[in-house]
Amino acid sequence: MPAPLDLRLLSTFVRAAHSGTLSATAVQVGRTQSAVTMQIQRLEDALGGQSLFHRSGSGVRLTGSGERFLAYAERILKIHDEAVSAFSGKGLQGSIIFGSPEDYLSAFFPTLLRSFGSLYPDIEIKVVSAPTVELHNLLHARQVDLVLVSIPDASASREVVRTEAMVWVGSKPTLEMHEFGETVPLALPASNAMDHKAACDAMARAGLRYKIAYASNSLTGLIAVARSGLAISVMTQKAVPPDLFILNAPLPRLSRLGVLIAFAETTRSPAIEAFANHIRGILPSL
Length: 286
Description:
This protein has helices at residues 7-19, 22-29, 33-46, 64-87, 102-119, 132-140, 194-206, 219-228, 270-282; strands spanning 53-56, 59-62, 94-100, 123-129, 146-151, 162-170, 184-188, 210-215, 232-236, 245-247, 256-263. By secondary structure, the chain is of the alpha/beta class. Strands 3, 4, 5, 6, 7, 8, 9, 10 and 11 form a nine-stranded mixed sheet that branches. The protein has a two-stranded antiparallel sheet with strand order 1-2. The N and C termini lie far apart (55 Å).
């Protein structure tokens, strides 16, 4: 009789299949890369010596056997989570890798985590902070389970769970144009970020001269530059710290963002569904 399959090995295998690298898998499961390699080898041995991955310097990819087994592994893990939830009396269990831009994490995640943790203490949540563009790449690579992402037009999707105002931020309550010689220095994230494009488009429409004086994908970095008074920045209104000021005229009004939840998989575990539903219920009121 074949030996029973170890659920921990199945979970590691699924993570490796989705991420494409054993190093990323090691981070996700909290083990060393050598330990992950040993787990994959143990699973292959348990399956009669089947090779599940092609290995190369750039990572791993599924063999034909690995592709067939992936569907079984995902079904086994999903059914396991459902059974534990239904009969253990302990509520949902499992782990989630959640991604979000830094400003949303700063503004919303403490409340979301505290309230969700009180309802589901046995669900582990790992957090990845990245801009929306990078989060889409992580979703495509299946390195995160679900993410909060921004869309530029809040009315473009019925799945938007919240809208956020983008605002100009500075160290003084009003913008004195003469202090900058009629060319406004901006501190913005990378050029592929929505905040960057929205700021530049708004300045161009208003006919105001500007220059990108500082660039940083770190909210902390942008806040530091805004505090220095050497430039003004753009961020979501909820992320503005109390010692900085929201600036209005002569600066143009900025558009609003829609915040929505995106998933890596169409078939999702009960833990992921529970967290997504919690976000939908709590986020609009924060």
